[in-house]
Amino acid sequence: MEVVVTPDPGEVAADAIAGHVRPGAVLGLATGSSPLPVYAALLRRRDAGAISFDGVRAFTLDEYLELPRSHPQSYHSVIRREFTDAAGIEVDGPDGEAHDVPAEAERYEAAIAAAGGIDVQLLGIGVDGHLGFNEPGSSLASRTRTKTLTPQTRADNARFFASPDEVPVHVLTQGLGTILEARHLVLVATGASKASAVAAAVEGPVSAFCPASVLQLHPHVTVVLDEDAASQLRLLDYYRFTAANKPDWQPW
Ligand code: GLP
């Protein structure tokens, strides 16, 4: 696991992702606020001619159930508005309107596999350590399935809705086992509210109680943090020293 503390997490995460962008690449995209500077940085690079999204496909992590796809806060709408429409990238996601939710979960797993798997998966982290919508207690081997949101996550996400009651209770999310199959994981976290979850994920025991601790089982993870999100890491000085001495030849 490579931990990078930087004043500009969006640019560093965009560096890590840009290295995978080529025709045929499959990107794993995340919603929430944390990835937005990454998408902005990737679009700037495309506009500058440094990368091209031609022939790139994408999959999202999760989706609300009990919310029409056309709702502005469905992740179907959010990812198109925030990134893929501007990038011209074809994107698939779990269908929150599916009548047969288990069948939709199977379809989604099969679609990712048929695309050849995900080359690089961008991730945020919930204040309770969730990845995608894998809440505490999620099996570390889980596959795409429905989950019930915690009151904490519903409260955190209420800012996107007119009232807290509007936040759906159920979701469809890639499992932790699904996420682990992406070839490179890039987690972005900013702000003091994420510091405790980041410390538990990076330095705590691997435990379903902190779903993001499953990252410790993956051979290629880049964790990109601002100072506030990094503030509870015990090995912070070591991560800084490692980053300052990163060999020129070593890619993200
Ligand atoms: C939601 C998403 C997660 C995201 C989390 C944190 O619950 N399902 O994928 O990581 O929010 O979001 P933010 O980056 O806005 O703090």
Q: How many helix segments? A: 8
Give the second-level CATH assignment, the architecture. Answer: 3-Layer(aba) Sandwich
Helix content: 25-40%
Global mean pLDDT? 97
Ligands, ions, cofactors? 2-amino-2-deoxy-6-O-phosphono-alpha-D-glucopyranose
What is the helix/strand order?
EHEHEEHEHEEHEHEHEH
Sheet with most strands: 7 strands, parallel
Order of strands across the main sheet: 1-10-9-6-2-3-5
List low-confidence stretches.
Answer: none
User: In CATH's first tier, which class applies?
Assistant: Alpha Beta
Structural class by helix and strand composition: alpha/beta
Q: Categorize the overall geometry.
A: globular
Q: Strand fraction band?
A: 15-25%
Which short descriptors sum up this protein?
3-stranded antiparallel sheet, Rossmann fold, 7-stranded parallel sheet, single chain, 252 residues, globular, binds 2-amino-2-deoxy-6-O-phosphono-alpha-D-glucopyranose
Task: Write up what this structure looks like.
This protein has a single domain (2-244), classed as Rossmann fold (3-Layer(aba) Sandwich), CATH 3.40.50.1360. The chain is 31% helix and 16% strand. The chain contains eight helices and ten strands. A seven-stranded parallel β-sheet has the order 1-10-9-6-2-3-5, with helices on both faces. Helix 7 (195-203) links the parallel strand 9 and strand 10 (221-225). The chain is globular, with a radius of gyration of 17 Å. The model has no long low-confidence stretch (mean pLDDT 97). The structure holds 2-amino-2-deoxy-6-O-phosphono-alpha-D-glucopyranose. 2-amino-2-deoxy-6-O-phosphono-alpha-D-glucopyranose is lined by residues 30-34, 61-62, 124-126, 132-133, 153, 157. Residues 30-34, 61-62, 124-126, 132-133, 153, 157 line the site of 2-amino-2-deoxy-6-O-phosphono-alpha-D-glucopyranose.
